Amino acid sequence: MNTTLALALYDTASRIDRLRFQLQTLPPAPKTPAADSVSALIVDLVTITMDVTTHIKSCLSELSAGNSPKTALRAYSGALAPLGEALTELGRMHAEIAHWNFSADATRQLGSMGQVLPSQRVIDAISGCREAVDEILDATAIDLRTSATELASPPSLLRSGAPARTLPATGPAPASPPAALPTAKRR
Predict the structure, then answer these.
(1) Distances (CA, A) of 143 to 20, 75, 92, 107, 164
(2) Is the distance from CB of 51 to CB of 112 less than 8 angstroms?
């Protein structure tokens, strides 16, 4: 039971890490990310948040059945609020991009390549939201992994904790077979 809960926590943390990676692949300032890219991140984060809610319901039903998934329940419950905050920040980021894309903002500037750049206020707002989302998701993934470790050791530690197999002491190792001698071609 604990191993299953721990693996589910690790899986959720990994999904959050993938979302962070996608966030980091968005173009940096002064360029604005495409609204569609941010929308896709929002959809992914909503899916993760809904799955966390499902895990909470499952833990509560296990708890009422007499099982003890308290650590997992605490971890998922603790992750819900930060995921909501990250969702709010992504929403702000999306709103800034959409507003900038569809407004007749007179403060638009041309960059060195001739592309239209957003105002400094828009750049700061998008960058701030992006940094906030990254920090929130990073802390949430760390907390989930910590709770998973409390439930069961990480898979790599489980493997390294097993005693190493040794070869039986039967004498010196066999010599390698002699190398084949090259034969000269006859004509």
Answers:
(1) 15, 7, 25, 42, 31
(2) no
Query: What does the longest C-alpha to C-alpha distance in the chain come to?
Result: 88
Long-range contacts of 151-155 (CB under 8 A, 24+ apart): 151/2, 151/3, 151/5, 151/6, 151/9, 151/71, 151/72, 152/2, 152/3, 152/5, 152/6, 152/7, 154/10
| 116-117 vs 109-110, strand pairing mode | antiparallel
pLDDT value at 176 more than 50: no
Rounded to the nearest 10 degrees, what angle do helices 2-24 and 120-151 cross at?
160
Strand-pairing partners, residue 109, are: 117
Angle at 136 between CA 123 and CA 52, to 5 degrees: 125
pLDDT tens sequence across 92-145: 999 999 888 777 554 555 555 555 667 788 889 999 999 999 999 999 999 999
pLDDT score recorded for residue 43: 97
Q: What is the pTM of this model?
A: 0.74
pLDDT digits (tens, 9 = 90+) for 156-173: 544 444 444 444 444 444
Q: Is 51 exposed, middle or buried (0-12, 13-18, 19+ CB in 10 A)?
A: middle
